[in-house]
Amino acid sequence: MRWKVVVPASSPPVARVDVKQHLRVDTTDDDALIDALIAAAVAYVEEIGGMSLAQRTIEAYLPSWPGVAWLSLPRPPVHSVVFVRYRDLYGNVVDMPASDYVAIEHGIWSASWPSAPLARDVPEPITIRYVAGYDVIPAPIRHALLLLVAHWYEHREAAEVGHISREVAFGVDALLAPYRRWA
Questions:
Q1: Is CB count within 10 Å lower at the N or C end of the chain?
Q2: Alpha carbon of 161 to those of 147, 149, 155, 158, 165: distances in Å?
Q3: Which CATH number applies to 15-53+137-179?
Q4: How far is CA 46 from CA 59, 66, 140, in A?
Q5: Helix 31-49 and helix 139-154, axial crossing angle in degrees, nearest 10
Q6: CATH 1.10.3230 residue ranges in the chain?
């Protein structure tokens, strides 16, 4: 399933002020670096976890209706579904009634997907627009972000001679494990 972010998150899932407090930094000298590290940590956690942290609007494109009642969507948790839209055989854009589906944590559920034939000239005639991300970031995920930023802030090179950073990776993995989405 192809997907893209159509409205990005309005703010990072962890604020710079909180990160600076965690780092014990009280100057503004490194604010740009800290912002970049926050963005990198968020991207890393979202990628390895297959999740959305801060809320954003995503569109997923499907070639056909699922054969089961539920459809797993990329980058959960799914907060709400904006619309389910498809092109019928004649090229008309049709909105599926909102009463025919419901958002579930990892996707969307419908007791009956439309049975009308889909457009043949469009490779992905179904579009699902939804809002994904947490209302409040769970504490373990937030802490994993803080650990990553702190580690990268203190160790600005990819590797240091004589240092082993496996403990940070293990700690981050352990904190994220309950929230990971396995494809």
A1: C
A2: 21, 20, 11, 10, 11
A3: 1.10.3230
A4: 17, 25, 14
A5: 130
A6: 15-53+137-179
What pLDDT, on a 0 to 100 scale, did the predictor assign at position 182?
67
- What single letter denotes the amino acid at residue 30? D
Say if CB 118 and CB 15 are below 8 A apart: no
Report the candidate in 58, 131, 123 with the shortest Cα–Cα distance to residue 86.
123
Sheet holding 107-109, edge to edge: 70-72, 107-109, 102-104
178 cis-preceded (ω within 30 degrees of 0): no
d(CA 48, CA 175): 12
Angle 81-12-102 from CA coordinates, rounded to 5°: 10
Residues of the chain with pLDDT below 50 are: none
How far is the C-alpha of 149 from the C-alpha of 154, rounded, in Å? Answer: 9
Tell me, what's the pLDDT at 164? Answer: 59
How far is the C-alpha of 169 from the C-alpha of 122, rounded, in Å?
43
Tell me the CB-side half-sphere exposure of residue 156, using CA atoms within 13 A: 5
Q: What is the DSSP string of 77-139?
A: -EEEEEEEEEEBTTS-EEEPPGGG-EEETTEEE-SS---SPBPSSSS--EEEEEEES-SS--H
Query: pLDDT tens digit string along 47-62?
Result: 999 999 999 999 999 9
